[in-house]
């Protein structure tokens, strides 16, 4: 079987070079994968379909999968899931950029308190209902594991304004010179799905993970690694990228990544579920991607944006995401 996890230092270096070179391009304003449709809008024009970030990491004998939607939930996105949409984690077990296993989520209409029913179906390719319950509650999963869906703090953190050139990194106005960063995402929320399952239920140790949302048979958004669409894909191709399958990436979108295409495409988060290593082996919530990139590109182990963690601490237990801001 083809190994998924590539040379991470090289990949990080290439990403860093690309991000530094493209930092002034307005398309990066969405960061991660927030607002990655044309003109800094949500795919399909609805935040409930807009995937903000995808995480996949080892927790003991389990693997944790997290998908965020609704950027700035409660401000300009809803705080609920769309009862007419479908949400899913796709798992590739053999390296061909095709899903061999899917976890599919559907939601009911919100009640007076904003609560929604949630159903989880595992398809590989047969379909089995393995969990059902209500948003905001921990739901046991058949075969082991836990599901929770609801409103959480946005776990993404970095100094977006510095990245876009408003001021140098670590020189945010009003802070100590040389040590002040401003977390653009502090105080913001997202709606998220958190699924933890036994790693051996996913097949081999090396898997590929991506998330997608859709309406009926139409895919609206998808994401694997952070920032592929927001940084590299031109505005007039963003919808096409969101609607495509990873197996089409190299042929249809490789031209926009140039020499980086063999490293960064297909847009799939590669994970060795037996390893505790973070990005680029999956993605952990506390992974400081910006600092990693700056340190590699500059050769300075102290380089960074002076935003070293989330604005609130991540809990050490399920559901791993922090409570939403009020």
What does this structure look like?
The chain is α+β, with helices and mostly antiparallel strands and 326 residues long. It has one domain (8-298). The protein contains 7 helices and 12 strands. Strands 3, 4, 5, 6, 10, 11 and 12 form a 7-stranded antiparallel beta sheet that branches. A 5-stranded antiparallel beta sheet has the order 1-2-9-8-7, with no helix packed on it. The chain starts with 7 loop residues before the first helix and ends in a 28-residue tail after the last helix.
Question: What labels would you give this structure?
Answer:
326 residues; alpha+beta; seven-stranded antiparallel sheet; five-stranded antiparallel sheet; 7 helices; globular; disordered N terminus
Question: pLDDT below 50 for ≥5 consecutive residues: which ranges?
Answer: 1-29
Average pLDDT level = 87
- Encode the helix/strand succession as letters: HEEEEEEEEHEEEHHHHEH
**What's the number of structural domains?**
1
**Any idea what the radius of gyration is?**
19 Å
Number of helices: 7
Largest sheet: 7 strands, antiparallel
What is the distance, rounded to the nearest whole angstrom, between the alpha carbons of the first and last residues?
47 Å
Q: Helix coverage percent of residues?
A: 10-25%
* Beta strand %: 25-35%
Shape: globular
Find the structural class using helix and strand composition: alpha+beta
- Count of β-strands: 12
